[in-house]
């Protein structure tokens, strides 16, 4: 009996042992299945949760599923810790794993499927609801059944305009709109350039109509756009009942439904006259739809939508054609020369051509002749062209920043059709408007004015990666009409109270208020008769902070006796071979900036330069295309700029050393001065100098041997000096030098031996040094500095640095050089 019982117990033990072994064997595959299931589920659940949150749906179901997964992951984590020593634990964990896997599968197959079915039913119901709403929206009262594929026979664009000279820009725009992938295209240009007319013309182009059919919508946005009104206009274009919208969001949602229904065929939406600050409005009209295009017309180049298309002024022939179209008359037209003179004064502006031609339509010859004479003697904006003035004024009204408006009006200080150096603007604005001296804020204003099509900028030479605020090769150009607008704005106040006084003197012609020596006789006699004695010539008192005087080649230096006590910036634009500074110059006690520019063919000889010695506040002088006279003592001068000047009298035939004449000079810029062979003696004694830029001075052969005395020098630029054969070894003693430029010094055969001792060096420009065959070994010392050093060079220069691979903080840049030769059309040789 005992044996039987013992055998039964033993048999049960063996049976359980066999079951344990079997479950132990099943543990591994079960664990692997669980791991695989969880790995597959985790990213799917994470993605479902993102969409669930985006749609703002209840999160309970997702949270239950996440709980299942967390519990499963915890069980798997514990199971993976088991080893062969825990063999007896395998069956228990195998059972738990199997149970958890079955529970997860059941949840997925039952609960989740039911949730999916419920969501699908809700989705169908919602779509059905939207469809019913859309059908109500699309139901037209007494207009027949809405097709939905196209708005037949309807076009939002106004009637086709008559215009000339737009074939080229029209074809370029058409190509862009017929392309795949272009969603927003910006057509930009200054006020009155014909942007809206071109956009309207485009809507009637056969190829555009062939693609977009009746799905062309034209909406004027203007200065204060109302989004709901714009969307209502689009509904009206479709011939539908115009709905009332509760909010802008409601309007956009309903518009999306409309366009998607219409959008079975391509759609073109023209948003005309979009003002600054309305980029967000344009964004709201963007929908992800195939063949849906938006054309924006604006005086602002919205670059966030890609490269805009710039509409330029008309050339003369097309301008004549457009003028004759607007001036059509049953009578015989005036002679061709008269027409050409009037058209020339319109500066290629379609708006100006229309306004002037309209005023002459059906007028007698004498009226045409008077218009020609008026346009020769005064601005077109003052020639009964109120409409044109108002239209251009809108461009200026876009500038909300008062400082930007002031900077725009400063552009009128310079002659018509001439390049304005950006460095001149930087100098002026630093003193007038308190902008920083390195040009950062000034260039921000320049770029904003470019974006608003008020100016354009050309760079005669541009290195793509240059970032060291060097703008000697950058020039601003302004359309003639906008220049006249700037001058017109400056005349807004009475003569005596103007902030800017702009004077044009041609030959012996003088304005009525001018009182000079040639009038002094009669005035003196009159005063003598009244007072019984001779009196001095009457002095003209002005309150202007800026005085600009332009003279022609026959100007006789007959200056009036002016009291410019408040003038801080004096701009002298001349053309004569000899030029005398105004006699009243020494009275400008507040003068800070002097800009003298010769636009004539030959360099001009400056006379009475010594008058500047009386001005204690004079900080900046820029001379262009003049023969610089012997230096005067200018103790507070901080910046001297010489461009295309003769420097021999100032630098070689001097009576006082330059360090005595300008002891506080901080910056010296000499460009295209081809008679400069060396810097004057005593130059290195100007220890206040921080920046020296000597560029394109091809006869310069050396720099001072004691240049290390310039202990505060931070920038030394010696680029494009083709005869420069050596650089003083003492350059290595410039302990604050951070920028060193020897680009295009083709005769330079070696660098200073200790150039590696320049511990503050950050940028080293050495492109185009074709005669440089090796670098001194001391450059290895540049690896000891903590900051990064940029070397800007070409492939040949980079090859020289390959011999020094162990300079860890060295960065070699080989930028492409862009050379723009268009500026040569306006250069002064």
From TrEMBL:
Q: Care to name a GO molecular-function term for this sequence?
A: ADP binding
Query: Taking every annotated instance into account, which residue ranges of this chain make up the domain RPW8?
Result: 1-146
Q: Which keywords does the record carry?
A: Plant defense, Repeat
What Gene3D superfamilies does UniProt report for this protein, alphabetically? Helical domain of apoptotic protease-activating factors (1.10.8.430), P-loop containing nucleotide triphosphate hydrolases (3.40.50.300), Ribonuclease Inhibitor (3.80.10.10), Winged helix-like DNA-binding domain superfamily/Winged helix DNA-binding domain (1.10.10.10)
InterPro entries annotated for this entry?
A: Apaf_helical (IPR042197), LRR_dom_sf (IPR032675), NB-ARC (IPR002182), P-loop_NTPase (IPR027417), Powdery_mildew-R_dom (IPR008808), WH-like_DNA-bd_sf (IPR036388)
Any one Gene Ontology biological process term? Answer: defense response
Keyword field contains Translocase: no
Protein family membership: Belongs to the disease resistance NB-LRR family.
Under PANTHER family, the record lists: PLANT BROAD-SPECTRUM MILDEW RESISTANCE PROTEIN RPW8
Which named protein is this? Disease resistance protein (CC-NBS-LRR class) family protein
Taxonomic classification, please?
Answer: Eukaryota, Viridiplantae, Streptophyta, Embryophyta, Tracheophyta
């Amino acid at each position: 009996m005992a044996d039987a019982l013992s055998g039964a117990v033993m048999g049960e033990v063996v049976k359980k042992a066999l079951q344990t072994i079997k479950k132990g064997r099943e543990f591994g595959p079960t664990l692997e299945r669980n791991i695989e299931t969880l790995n597959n589920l985790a990213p799917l659940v994470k993605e479902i949760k993102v969409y669930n949150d985006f749609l703002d749906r209840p999160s309970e179901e997702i949270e239950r599923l996440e709980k299942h997964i967390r519990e499963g992951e915890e069980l798997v984590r514990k199971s993976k810790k088991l080893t062969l020593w825990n063999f007896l634990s395998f069956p228990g964990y195998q059972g738990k794993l199997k149970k958890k896997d079955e529970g997860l599968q059941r949840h997925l197959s039952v609960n989740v499927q039911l949730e999916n079915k419920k969501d699908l039913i809700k989705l169908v119901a919602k779509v059905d609801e939207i469809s019913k709403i859309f059908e109500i929206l699309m139901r037209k009262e007494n207009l027949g059944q809405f097709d939905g594929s196209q708005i037949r026979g309807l076009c939002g664009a106004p009637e086709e305009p008559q215009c000339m000279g737009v074939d080229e820009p029209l074809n370029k725009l058409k190509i862009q709109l017929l392309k795949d992938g272009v969603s927003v295209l910006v057509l930009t240009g200054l006020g009155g350039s014909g942007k809206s007319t071109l956009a309207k013309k485009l809507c009637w182009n056969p190829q555009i109509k062939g693609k977009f059919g009746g799905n062309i919508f034209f909406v004027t946005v203007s200065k204060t756009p109302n989004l709901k009104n714009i969307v209502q206009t689009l509904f009206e274009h479709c011939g539908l009942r115009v709905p009332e919208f509760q909010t802008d969001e409601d309007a956009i949602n309903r518009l999306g439904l409309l366009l998607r229904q219409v959008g079975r065929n391509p759609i073109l939406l023209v948003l005309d006259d979009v003002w600054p600050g309305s980029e967000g409005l344009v964004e709201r009209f963007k929908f992800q739809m195939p063949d849906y295009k938006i054309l924006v017309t604006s005086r602002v180049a919205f670059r966030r939508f890609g490269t805009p298309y710039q509409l330029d002024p008309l050339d003369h022939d097309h301008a004549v054609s457009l003028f004759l179209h607007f001036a059509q008359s049953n009578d015989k037209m005036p002679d061709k020369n008269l027409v050409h003179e009037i058209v020339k004064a319109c500066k290629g502006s379609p708006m100006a051509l229309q306004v002037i031609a309209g005023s002459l339509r059906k007028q007698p010859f004498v009226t045409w002749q008077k218009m020609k004479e008026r346009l020769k003697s005064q601005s077109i904006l003052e020639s009964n062209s109120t409409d044109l003035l108002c239209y251009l004024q809108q461009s200026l009204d876009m500038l909300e920043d008062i400082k930007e408006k002031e900077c725009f009006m400063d552009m009128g200080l310079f002659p018509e059709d001439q390049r304005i150096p950006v460095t001149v603007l930087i100098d002026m604005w630093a003193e007038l408007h308190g902008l920083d001296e390195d040009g950062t804020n000034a260039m921000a204003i320049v770029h904003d004015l470019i974006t608003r099509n008020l100016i354009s900028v050309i760079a005669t030479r541009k290195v793509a990666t240059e970032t060291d605020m060097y703008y000697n090769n950058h020039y601003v150009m302004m359309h003639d009409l906008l220049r006249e607008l700037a001058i017109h704005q400056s005349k807004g106040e009475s003569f005596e109270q103007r902030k800017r006084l702009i004077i044009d003197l041609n030959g012996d012609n003088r304005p009525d208020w001018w009182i000079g020596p040639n009038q002094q006789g009669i005035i003196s006699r009159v005063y003598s008769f009244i007072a019984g004695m001779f009196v001095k010539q009457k002095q003209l008192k002005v309150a202007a902070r800026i005085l600009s005087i332009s003279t022609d080649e026959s100007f006789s230096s007959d200056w009036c006796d002016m009291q410019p006590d408040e003038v801080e910036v004096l701009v002298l634009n001349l053309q004569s071979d000899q030029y005398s500074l105004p006699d009243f110059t020494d009275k400008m006690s507040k003068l800070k900036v002097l800009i003298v520019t010769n636009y004539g063919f030959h360099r001009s000889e400056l006379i009475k330069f010594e008058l500047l010695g009386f001005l204690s506040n004079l900080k900046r002088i820029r001379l262009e295309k003049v023969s610089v006279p012997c230096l005067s003592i200018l103790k507070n001068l901080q910046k001297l700029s010489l461009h295309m000047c003769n420097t021999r009298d100032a630098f070689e035939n001097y009576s006082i050393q330059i360090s005595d004449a300008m002891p506080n000079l901080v910056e010296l810029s000499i460009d295209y001065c081809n008679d400069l062979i060396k810097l004057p003696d005593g130059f290195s004694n100007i220890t206040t100098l921080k920046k020296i830029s000597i560029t394109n001075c091809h006869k310069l052969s050396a720099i001072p041997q004691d240049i290390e005395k310039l202990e505060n020098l931070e920038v030394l630029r010696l680029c494009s000096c083709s005869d420069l054969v050596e650089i003083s070894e003492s350059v290595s003693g410039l302990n604050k030098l951070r920028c060193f430029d020897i680009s295009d010094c083709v005769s330079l055969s070696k660098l200073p031996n200790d150039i590696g001792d320049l511990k503050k060096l950050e940028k080293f420009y050495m492109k185009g040094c074709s005669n440089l065959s090796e670098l001194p070994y001391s450059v290895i010392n540049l690896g000891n500095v903590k900051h990064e050093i940029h070397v800007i060079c070409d492939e040949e220069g980079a090859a020289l640095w390959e011999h020094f691979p162990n300079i860890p903080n060295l960065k070699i840049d080989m930028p492409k050089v862009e050379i723009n030769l268009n500026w040569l059309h306006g250069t002064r040789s």
